[in-house]
Amino acid sequence: MNSSFRNPIKNVFQSPSSFARWSMLFVVLVFSLTLYNCSSNEMESSEPEELIKMVNVETEVLFLEPFNSFLRLVGTVETSDDVQLSAEVSGKVSMHVVSEGQQVQKGQTILRIDDAKLSQEVARLKAMVAQSETTWKRVQTLYEEENIGSEIDYLNAKYAYDQNKSALSSLAVDLENTEIIAPFTGVVETIFVEEGEMVAPGMPAIRLIGADQFVISAGVPARYANVVELGDRVDVWFDTQVQDTLAGNIVYVANSIDPSNRTFKIDIRLPSGKTYYKVDMIANLRLNTLSLNQVVVVSEEFVYSKGDGYVMYVKGTNSEGKDIALERTVELGPSFKTEVVINRGLVPGDEIITIGSAFLNDRVRINVVNSIGPVLALD
Hints:
Layout: H1 8-14, H2 16-45, E1 53-57, E2 59-61, E3 64-79, E4 82-86, E5 91-96, E6 103-104, E7 109-113, H3 116-145, H4 151-176, E8 179-181, E9 186-191, E10 198-199, E11 204-210, E12 214-221, E13 233-237, E14 246-253, E15 263-269, E16 282-299, E17 304-306, E18 309-317, E19 323-336, E20 339-344, E21 351-353, E22 365-368, E23 376-378
Parallel strand pairs: 1-22
Antiparallel strand pairs: 1-23, 2-21, 3-12, 3-16, 4-11, 5-7, 5-10, 6-9, 7-8, 9-11, 12-15, 13-14, 13-16, 14-15, 16-20, 17-18, 18-19, 19-20
């Protein structure tokens, strides 16, 4: 064999430098495969942890409680005795017996009209009555006892006497009406005529207001016709008074609806003997329109519209014992201001979610906190 022929592989391994290089390459290859296998096993043994959305919320336990709804109205102070007294005869005002603002008693004279002309007329009629009476008696004696004269003369004399007497009686009434008398005890609010001024029948002369009993008159919308009843309590207060809220009672409920504003009238009696009530004062009224004893009441801000109905969220737990929000369909009842009655869907003892409920969906994880911080958190 030719000594010059050599095996290439053998030569490679026999070369010190080549052998070292191949050894190093083999070691690196084995280390890489080992590291890859370890990493693969680690990734297969543990799955990536998923970030879970959680909402910080506050809750409230439901209890049965009373529910009341009210109607706010504005009324006007009136009195049943508020009249304008008019003159009943013509004449000149001779005297104001009392002044404006003065209290008068029933039957007291308030104003006098000059009666001089009427007095003269009364004297004239008295003379005519006396004359016609004498004439009638003479004709009567002649006709009945002596059969002198005709029946028509007898009747004419009698009728003339009766007419004069009637005219005298009527004039006497006019003479009495020259004084305007107080028909009830009250306060002279306004005197419309001055002394020396001429007045005529039907002309307003005095406004007299009774001071014994005041009422508040108000109009109630017709839809409350089946709610308001006689004797119902009404809370009353005045913006111009510093007194506390008063408790009045309905003393009158109208049986008709005002077609102009679709309301019916009610009157509320105010306490008697108070001097600070004034006619035409504006009063604030609050009527109780509905009272329920034991019902579930929630704030309407935690009720949400969904589809054709309404939902709320209550605290629940999932299979792992974690707190979650459960969506409940609810049926709403009466409401007043921000409170609403829940007819169906919630029961006493349910722990409803209040603050933070706007960020919820069904079965979302929640974290119940006492004081709310950031609404959304990541666990």
